[in-house]
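Why does residue order matter? Because the sequence determines the fold. Keep that principle in mind as you read this record.
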Amino acid sequence: MVCGGFICTKNALCALNIVYVLVGLLLIGVAGWGKWLDLVSSIRVVAGVIGVGIFLFVVAFVGLCGALKHHQVLLFFYMIILFIVFVVQFSVSCACLALNKEQQNHLLEVGWNKSEATQTDLEKTLDCCGFLSVPVNDSCAARCFHNPQMTCEKCSDIIQRYAGDVLRFVGGIGLFFSFTEILGVWLAHRYRNIKDPRTNPGAFL
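Structure:
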């Protein structure tokens, strides 16, 4: 059967959703692994990553079931949810790519001030203290703070060196996956409107 027919569209939709299932499981596993090894102490970050992984897994599972059963209702809801995800992800990805230096610094400062656990993680990982200035009497989780022979840098200086590259990387990955999502919407729409050749030709499921 030529590609574009019932079987080819079904296989393409199943393959796409299997990839989404694996990505969802990967996100859940990485977040759990990071928390278990105490690489990330912020519960909000871990819960957020696990939540995204579970959501992606559920959406992919719905799409996979809809593709295997040629189920019109499941495919319809799968299309709607995937299109909403595409719009949100495409917008966020474009925003990441469009942020200038001043906007990046503002967002970094807001994120820094929101969570003490995130501050501790960054100070340990980057070996820096404070965001805009190095604290004198306050506690700091960095190794340099407890070693008189070492000088601590401000965390903002270190983060800003990589912020642009990270945002471009995240924006690029987001754009790539957003196009796979619109591909999934198109495949699901096409698949819903193709008759199953194994059933009665006069029936439309």
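Helices lie at 6-36, 43-69, 72-98, 101-114, 116-126, 155-192.
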